[in-house]
């Protein structure tokens, strides 16, 4: 009898320890989504976007946070936020980071804001793609291949890009930073202001309109046209 009692105590303690030390990401939830080609995401989400033949969305994190998610498709745009937005703020909520995993056949436009972390993979042979990063958002666009690629950065956003683009358009402001030296672009158009820093690689042409204390650096030997004001600068790097 004593042996059974001790075994019961042991199993109870083991169960409590498993619960106590369980990862906050142990909870997951899948959402039924379809028919979108644009994204509008913010908050402090960690976001993984991959190209695939079917649509899917899964969320991982603490249960109380995941269950508070509100998923909406507005036209052809997927939006994910919290149900208790309260004008954009979650008063009284100590939110933990949620990881969103998204699969979609085509990505045309994406807007990321807040303190989100973004990783985009697998989108090749695209006609046109546009990305907007604002706030303290950070992103990685891996092996993008597009005829036309538009990038808009503001605030303290940070973006790294690799792949190929026929035409690259960059608009950077605030203290934003773009590292596009691993993106091979044929023609590039850069507008930089504030304390932004833009690094690119361009083969044929490069047009730069820079002001404030912005910095533009480039790889390659393109034909350059530039309009600099303030303490803005442009320089070639190896």
Automatic annotation (TrEMBL):
Keywords: Signal
Cleavable signal peptide: 1-22
Top-rank lineage group of the source organism: Bacteria
Keyword Signal attributed: yes
Domain named Putative auto-transporter adhesin head GIN: residues: 36-222
Protein name: Putative auto-transporter adhesin head GIN domain-containing protein
């Amino acid at each position: 009898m004593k042996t059974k009692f001790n075994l019961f105590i042991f199993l109870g303690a083991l169960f409590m320890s498993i619960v106590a030390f369980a990862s906050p990401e142990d909870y997951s939830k899948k959402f039924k989504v379809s028919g979108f080609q644009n994204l509008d995401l913010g908050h402090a989400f960690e976001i993984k976007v991959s190209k695939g033949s079917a649509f899917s969305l899964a969320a991982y994190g603490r249960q109380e946070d995941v269950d508070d998610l509100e998923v909406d498709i507005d036209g052809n745009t997927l939006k994910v936020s919290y149900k208790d937005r309260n004008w954009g703020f979650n008063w009284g909520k100590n939110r933990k980071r949620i990881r969103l995993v998204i699969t979609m056949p085509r990505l045309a436009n994406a807007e990321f804001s807040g303190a989100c972390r973004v990783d985009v993979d697998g989108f090749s042979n695209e006609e046109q793609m546009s990305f907007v990063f604002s706030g303290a958002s950070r992103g990685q666009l891996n092996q993008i291949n597009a005829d036309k690629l538009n990038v808009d950065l503001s605030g303290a956003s940070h973006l790294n890009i690799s792949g190929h683009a026929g035409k690259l358009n960059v608009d950077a402001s605030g203290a934003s930073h773009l590292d596009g030296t691993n993106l091979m672009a044929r023609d590039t158009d850069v507008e930089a202001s504030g304390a932004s820093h833009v690094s690119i690689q361009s083969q044929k042409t490069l047009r730069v309109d820079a002001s404030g204390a912005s910095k533009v650096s480039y790889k390659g030997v393109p034909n350059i046209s530039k309009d600099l004001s303030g303490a803005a600068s442009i320089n070639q790097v190896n």
